[in-house]
Amino acid sequence: MYQLSGEHLDQWMKGYKSAWEGRIAEEAVRLFTDNAEYYESPFSEPACGSKSIMDFWQDVPILQTNVSFEYQILFIKEAIGYVHAHGRFMRLASGEEVTMDGIFEVHFAENGRCDLFRQWWHEKTEL
C-alpha cells in the first residue's frame, strides 16, 4: 500500500494551487490518474476520468478570475491526505467576490497521482 508523505502532499497541493490560480486546466488534469474520481461537493456527481476532469476545469477560466488559494495540511493517513483549503475569486458573470473555505480529502494511487478527490466547501459571496 502506498504511504503518502507530507512532502508529496505539499507538492501536489502546490500543483493544485498553481492550476487554479493560473486557471490552467491541463495543469490540473496532470495531478490525477486517468480514471480518477473528482467530487466538487458531497452531493454532486463525480467527474470521472481525465476527460471529465478536463471538462470541469476548462470552465474555470470562463467562470472565475482573480483567484487566490491557500491551504494547510491537516493530517495524513496511509495514502490519504486531509487539507484545510481557503480560496477567493470573482465570478465573471455576476462580479460577485466569493470566499470559500473547506476541506479536501485527497486519495493517492501508487504512482503518486490522485485517484479520488473529495471537497467540502462553504462559501460567502459579496457584490
pLDDT averaged residue by residue: 96
Please tell me how large the radius of gyration is: 14 Å
> How are the strands of the biggest sheet laid out side by side?
2-1-6-5-4-3
Secondary-structure-based class equals alpha+beta
How many helices?
A: 4
User: Order of helices and strands, N to C?
Assistant: HHEEHHEEEE
Helicity, in percent? 25-40%
Q: How much strand?
A: over 45%
* Number of strand segments: 6
Which ranges are low-confidence, i.e. pLDDT below 50, for 5 or more consecutive residues?
none
Walk me through this protein's architecture.
- The protein contains four helices and six strands, in the order ααββααββββ.
- The chain has helices at 6-22, 25-29, 49-58, 60-63; strands at 32-39, 47-48, 64-77, 80-91, 97-108, 114-126.
- The longest helix is centred in the N-terminal third of the chain and has 17 residues, at 6-22.
- β3 and β4 (80-91) form a beta hairpin.
- With 127 residues, it is of the alpha+beta class.
- Strands 2-1-6-5-4-3 form a six-stranded mixed β-sheet.
Fold blueprint:
Layout: H1 6-22, H2 25-29, E1 32-39, E2 47-48, H3 49-58, H4 60-63, E3 64-77, E4 80-91, E5 97-108, E6 114-126
Parallel strand pairs: 1-6
Antiparallel strand pairs: 1-2, 3-4, 4-5, 5-6
